[in-house]
Every structure is written in C-alpha cells, then in structure tokens.
Structure of Glutamate-1-semialdehyde 2,1-aminomutase:
Amino acid sequence: MDRNQQLFEQAKTIIPGGVNSPVRAFGSVGGIPRFIKKAQGAYVWDENESRYIDYVGSWGPAIVGHAHPEVVEAVSHAAENGLSFGAPTENEIRIAEAIRHIMPSMEQIRLVSSGTEATMSAIRLARGFTKRDNIIKFEGCYHGHSDSLLVKAGSGLLTFGHPSSAGVPEDFSRHTLVLPYNDIEALEQTFASKGDSIACVIVEPIAGNMNMIPATSEFVQAMRRLTDQYGSVLIYDEVMTGFRVALGGAQSIHGIKPDLTTIGKIIGGGMPVAAFGGRADIMSCVSPLGPVYQAGTLSGNPVCVAAGLKTLEIIQRPDFYNTLSARTLELSKGLAGIAEEANIPFTSRSIGGMFGFYFTAELPTCFSDMQRCNQVLFKEFFHAMLARGVAFAPSAYESCFVSAAHNSEIIADTLGLAAESMTEIARTV
Ligand code: PMP
C-alpha cells in the first residue's frame, strides 16, 4: 500500500470520507486522493514524493504560483507581529483600497474568511436592504454551502448527484427560485410574475462550478435591466472569477456594474480571506451602521490580509494578465488540437487564467449541456494525466486554473503528456 493510500485509510477513520471538503475525495473519478506534502510554483508533491503539474491551484487562489517567495515573506513578517488581534488594523484599510481600486463597483467592503460567508452575508444584506425574502439563483451555479443557496448548486453537489442537501428545511429553500443559466425568457417571466418579491439575483457571471460556462452578454444585460426595473439587488459572485478571468473580474469584461460583489480565493493568496461589498447605500445597512448583522472573530486576520495584499500587488504588475491569458489559451487550444487528432469529441475554452475542457463536440452553454458530456472519457483522461504527473480538478464539473508560474515549458510538457493520454484513451472511444 502506498503512502497516499495508507493516509486515506487512516483519514477515513477520523474525518468523514477522509477529507475536509467533499470533492477532494475523488468521489466522481474514483481512486486514491493524493495527500499533498508541499507545493512550489506550478508543482505539488504528494506523500509518495511524486510531483504533479498542478492545475487545481488550491481551487483558484494560487494565481501567482504556490509559495511565492514574496507572499511567504509577507506572511512570515506579519506572523512575527502576532497572529490575530480581533481589533482593526491599518492593512485592512489598505486591502480594501486595493480591492476598490481594481473593482470600483465595490465602494464599501467587508472582509470575511470564506466565500460561503461572503455570499451568505450578501444575500442577508440584499434581503435586509430590500425587505424582501425571495432570491433567484441559477442551475449549476455554486455559491458556497449556506442553507438557502444549496439548491441545485454546482461543484461537489453536482459531482455527488445531490440536487440539494439533506438538513435544509423546505421553509428555507422555498424562497430560492432556481432558473436555467443563460435563459433570458425564464428570467423575464419570473420577474414579470414575482418581481416585487425578489430581493436579489445572485449569479456566477462566468460560471466555474459546472465546469466553466460564461454568461452571454445578452444574459448579463437582462439581469442588470430586470433587477434595476424591479428594485432587486444584483449580486455578482466573483469568488472564483475575481482577479482570475481578468484583473477586474467578469464585471470588467462584461462592462456591468453589479450592486454587490462577493470575492474570495485570490484575495487571500492562499489564506482564508473573502469579502463582500458594493454600493455604499446598501453596505451602510451592515452592522454596526445598520440593522443587518454580520461579524467574525477572525475577519480581517492580519496574517491572511498580508498574504492577500502582497498577492494583489503582484497581479497588478505589468503584463501579468497578458502572459497568464496567453499561456492558458495555449494550453486550452493545445488540448483541443490533440483531442482532434486522436478523434475524440472534445472542446475547451479559456478566459484569463481559467479554463474548461469538455468531452463533447459542442461548447456547453448551460447546466443541461454539461450533463451530456462524456464522464467516462473525462475519468480516463484525468487518471491518464495524473499517472503522468499532471493534476487536473478531480471532477468534470470543475474549472481548472493556470498560474504565473506555469511557464511555456511547463505548458509544453503538459501538452506532450496530454498527447500520450489522449492516444491511450482513444482506444475506448
Ligand atoms: N462562490 C463561488 C463562485 C465559488 O466558486 C466558491 C467556492 N469554490 C464559493 C462561493 C464558496 O467559497 P468557500 O469555499 O471559500 O466557502
């Protein structure tokens, strides 16, 4: 038994499923999850000392590469001055300013410790601000695991086939209206019949939790128009796409100004930091200014904020996104070319440093398209690549991420290994 297997067996005796977040368990691809010992740049090493080119990137945060020396130094320096104070610090102002500079729609910002907390708080705020209960979300979009958002969510919930979660009272989820993604007609009809009761629309403007599926520009415009018309709050969940698809997130690509935005992952540079923010009139409803309660013992933690601030500094350096986007495109196009040669139905797309690939002939545009992808081929490709030292996300419903440390040579290595893997799996088509 190898060490990953040994540790997985041990972990299962004390941690449910052996993992602290479900997708890590390899449930949909089978096999043994790799227990990671260390990470550096574009690589991770498991407990067997095997090295992998990593396209999971801690599920998004690792945009400057793992253990970037400047980030590590900032964290060590901050840690020397104390791990947590539970009091305001100057760096909380600096990081909020840095975020607002990049995403001007976030006029006021509150820091939290996870994407789940950010979206949960933004929904509560939208309800408090509008004094309405109903919310609209879209099929296949994942916004963390708070009760009212666990309805037809993406990510691990799709992987495990749960349309929703046990333990969520019907009374909670009945206020969550779930509509198909990219379907303007369904959105218009819902607003026409229930518009006055809708507190907010929450959306991943480029969905990353049913693999990667961007909203069309018509769809984002319709969301903005209808929320304006009915006085509902438009919440962009950019926990994944913020600083990832472009410096200014999906909102900078579509040219849409949401009322509230949630961000996470990259703003902590690998440490637990997330945030919600937006229009000052809405944010002034948050406690202690207003009646919407929200709090956190470790919110704005000084060590985490130091990692985030340094990461935000690095990603604003000249050409960061040009290079990142070019490399990601090279990989995404390269994979498609290789699949074509191997005669495997396959498509891919990339935006900034995020990409998706799909074992189907046409690019999916909504959740039901995604469900038609060939899961068996995904699984075989995933394992063929893992065996060769390339780690993609262990589910067909996840997006993948490139970092600044993935140089041309590493992308070329990946494509070489992908060619071998595609030839291997082509035998089963
Ligand atoms: N929103 C989106 C779009 C996400 O992708 C995620 C996590 N992948 C979350 C919210 C929840 O964030 P967290 O896991 O930090 O709670």
Observations:
- The longest strand covers residues 198-203.
- Residues 3-67+318-426 form a domain with the Aspartate Aminotransferase, domain 1 fold (CATH 3.90.1150.10).
- The pocket of 4'-deoxy-4'-aminopyridoxal-5'-phosphate is lined by residues 59, 114-116, 119, 142-144, 155, 204, 208-209, 237, 239-240, 264, 274 (CB under 6 Å).
- The radius of gyration is 21 Å.
